[in-house]
Amino acid sequence: MKTLKKTFFILRWFLIGKMHCDVPLWCKKMFKTINCFLWLIILFSVIYTYVFLMF
Q1: Which residues cross the membrane (predicted)?
Q2: Whole-angstrom Cα distance, residue 11 to residue 1?
Q3: What band does 41 get if pLDDT is binned at 50, 70 and 90?
Q4: Angle at alpha carbon of residue 11, lines to 17 and 19, rounded to 5°
Q5: What are the CA-CA distances from residue 45 to residues 17, 18, 21, 38, 48 (Å)?
């Protein structure tokens, strides 16, 4: 249960983009890149699902 909470926190942290912690600049850039990549995957998944459910 503890790992599930930690995993959910990390996933939520990436998706929401909580980058206000005291971390080095390279970490913020890496997290921002990963965040953008995850949002692109979500966006394309929604578009893909919507397009193929219409036909």
Answers
A1: 37-53
A2: 15
A3: very high
A4: 25
A5: 19, 23, 30, 11, 5
H/E/C letters for each residue in the chain? CHHHHHHHHHHHHHHHCCCCCCCCHHHHHHHHHHHHHHHHHHHHHHHHHHHHHHC
Per-domain boundaries in the chain: 2-54
Spatial contact of 17 and 35, defined as CB atoms under 8 Å apart? yes
Length of the chain: 55
Per-residue pLDDT band at 17 (split at 50, 70, 90) = low
More confident residue, 44 or 22: 44
CA dist 8 and 14 (Å) reads: 10
